[in-house]
Amino acid sequence: MSFDVVAVRADFPILSREVNGKPLVYLDSGASAQKPNCVIDAINTAYSQEYANVHRGLHYLSSVATEKYEGVRATVAKFLGAQDGNTIVLNSGTTEGINMVAYAWAMNVMTEGDEIILSVMEHHANIVPWHFLRTRMGVKLVWVDTDANGDLDPQKMLDAITPRTKLIAVTHLSNVLGTVVDVKTICHGARERGVATLIDGSQAAVHMPVNVEDIGCDFYPITGHKLYGPSGSGAIYVRPERMAEMRPFMGGGDMIREVHKTEVIYNDAPMKFEAGTPGIVETIGFGVALEYMMGLGMDNIAAHERTLRDYARNKLEGLNWLNVQGTSADKAAIFSFTLEGAAHAHDISTVLDKKGVAVRAGQHCTGPLMDHLGQTATCRASFAMYNTKEDVDALVEALELCHRLFA
């Protein structure tokens, strides 16, 4: 099946609007992607025709809602190449997933002096939970830098392992540099050394096919709003052996089987890690978004985005006054940049917005990486499956205006 970007764009109603009198060129999908009609319709139907609480009712609406909600578990497993839906914990997104690993797994198996290896590229969501353990338990954080191109050498991650290392937590794809990390080599090498691995899949899962069985990771969180689904939705794959090592960290709702004055009997995994009433409608919409992507074909999406990446890279390299951070040969269509001179990233973003081009400006929740790059802030253009070469041209035209204004 070929990839028809015109047909895909027609599925996203917001892409037909104007901003500041210009056609919208949305290049901020790395922060949050737009939503197709099928997701919007599924959310509307769930609220207007099928809403009820899940798991707790025998009536018709509850049964319908429960069936659709629970069906997402199998959809996520298929999307991630997991063999069993019971390895999938549904949640509000990657941040909750990583915090679950910190509280439910790491606090249960780690002690003072144990080590967690991180790359300097990590998003704050894959840093702050480990700082919690550092300050509260005396866990040590070990950092591995990227090279001048923004590549992360997997052997350097493995060389950082010591007898006290318990976990490697690393992004699959940098949200700033676009770098694709060789997580398979890291995970297989870590497993040989008895070290667990958490791979932050927030960015990678939207741009390429993912198979957690092949990667060999222990934990793989994803977030729905970056995958063309609703905000407040997501999931995490947990290898069964690690699931057995986890203890519940939130209490209430469906994570219990029985509650008495003197004891609590927990539900089976993965339910015992899903406390309270979940984001029912958000999760249903998340499942529809994943089905939509799989229907288009992840290989087709990846091929289209590689074409965009190469076209954008060539165009941006022609702007000799533009500084692009991250020049890895193996990267996604994500470009962070600054302009030579005094122009701040926020000023650049504001000018681009006047031309209808939406980009991100700031530190992108990557303080350590910004320090490593020697930058206080950058602009980021992050492309998605609904973007076109014309969007690249619009970005370049707007950047040329910036250069004329700030040179």
Automatic annotation (TrEMBL):
Pfam families: Aminotran_5. It is an enzyme of class 2 (transferase). InterPro entries: Aminotrans_V_dom, Aminotrans_V_PyrdxlP_BS, Cys_dSase_SufS, PyrdxlP-dep_Trfase, PyrdxlP-dep_Trfase_major, PyrdxlP-dep_Trfase_small. Gene3D superfamilies: Aspartate Aminotransferase, domain 1, Type I PLP-dependent aspartate aminotransferase-like (Major domain). GO terms for molecular function: cysteine desulfurase activity; lyase activity; pyridoxal phosphate binding. Residues 25-395 form the Aminotransferase class V domain. This is Cysteine desulfurase. It comes from Octadecabacter antarcticus 307. The gene is sufS.
